Amino acid sequence: MRSRLEFGVVRVVFAVLAVFAAADGRAQGAPDVPPASTPPPAPTEPSRRLGVRVVPPSPGQSPDLGQALPLNPVETARTESAGGTERAPGNEFVVAPLPLSNPAIGSGLAVAVVYTIAARAAERASPPTTLGGGGFYTSNGSWAGAAGVKLYLNEDRYRITLGAGLGRINYDLFAEDPDGNGVPIRQDFEAALGEFMVGLGKRWYVGLRASYGTTEVALRDGGDGTVPVPPDQLDVKLGSLGLKGERDSRDSVFYPTSGSRLQLLVNHSDIELGSDFTYTKTNLSYSGYVTLDEPVILAFQVAGCNVTSGGPFFDLCLFGTENVLRGYTAGQYLDRWTAATQAEVRWRFANRWVGTAFVGVGGVKPLYSLSDEIEVLPAGGVGVQWIAAPANMITLRADWAVGEGGSRGLYIGIGQAF
Q: Long-range contacts made by residues 300-304, C-beta under 8 angstroms, separation at least 24?
């Protein structure tokens, strides 16, 4: 049994709250010596001003993207706290309507909102606090929404992330049968998380993450038959506690031009934590950034995922979500482990416009495949970004990516892919 596109839909909507835990600003960890590029504080603090920018949707209708378009509501509500040496003189507010077109859930509209609060003059080491939210609704009745906040305290020595979300996704779940008929189902979910991290100096952070969520899968609209997933995965509760470590030397989160970021998250779900399953999921990634020329940036990433046995199908490692190996249908390749690397060139060719080109390759042994061979999956694509908030370099991004065998996808979101 294997869900095609729909496996990714289930996995992504249940993990929609993880976006706020990824909203980490520049990790300074109350360094002993501020970076050399940090500008000296001004003699007087200028009065704050609120800048409001509305990002209009693209003119015309959304393109027909076929079966390969992965639904990624995480990206539509992506909110990352802006740090870096160029601090905004005031608060910034960005509203981004994002059109959606997906054969699995129909056509619709997503809206993402980001509000950054500039740090006070006495806390120049702190990135601005960021509040974010987003949601979407489609023609088949699918909807989801999430909101969260990222706080920086005591000159960025302590970081607190809070988030919550809920929704309903209507889609067809496919099993491997000769006719390839889908079973119309719905999946309701609710989730919340909290994360606390403390700076150890030298731009290192460690902390804990706690999360809890529920999801229920059932036939849609009184359909006949049974849902093609194990019975114990139809009504699921997941409670987890995670350990996170990070070193972040980027000069900016929204548009890094130098530095690197190393992240390790070990998340354990357990019956003792209120979960229906006991398993551990580990994610490790390293991203680096180099300025090739003043308007041209090279970004590269290596990422890996591992899940122990005992968990639900929608929390396996998979390509096609979270911008790891863009170009593959979410859920087409999933296993207890994945590994990938990618590189992207970002060229700011105009004052408010950035062009991108990227390539990548990954490895996976599909869990539901009859073969024992590891599949090597290449991918590549191009994109364009519009700078919606120049003070913090918050961009609205659209990437078109292709993979092996004609697999392809459109990825729309706020902020960089990695």
A: 300/341, 300/342, 300/343, 300/344, 301/341, 301/342, 301/343, 301/418, 302/340, 302/341, 303/339, 303/340, 303/341, 304/337, 304/338, 304/339, 304/340
Q: Is residue 1 part of a domain?
A: no
The answer to whether the CB of 145 falls within 8 A of the CB of 188 is no
Distance CA 224, CA 220 (A): 9
Query: Which amino acid, 158?
Result: Y
Residues found in the chain: 418
The answer to whether residue 44 is domain-embedded is: no
CB-based contacts of 42, cutoff 8 Å, min separation 6: 121
Q: pTM, whole model, 2 decimals? A: 0.70
Q: Is the residue at 386 inside a domain?
A: yes
Domain extent, residue 366, equals 6-39+49-414
pLDDT tens for 126-170 read 777 889 898 999 888 899 999 999 888 888 888 899 999 999 988
Structural domain count of the chain: 1
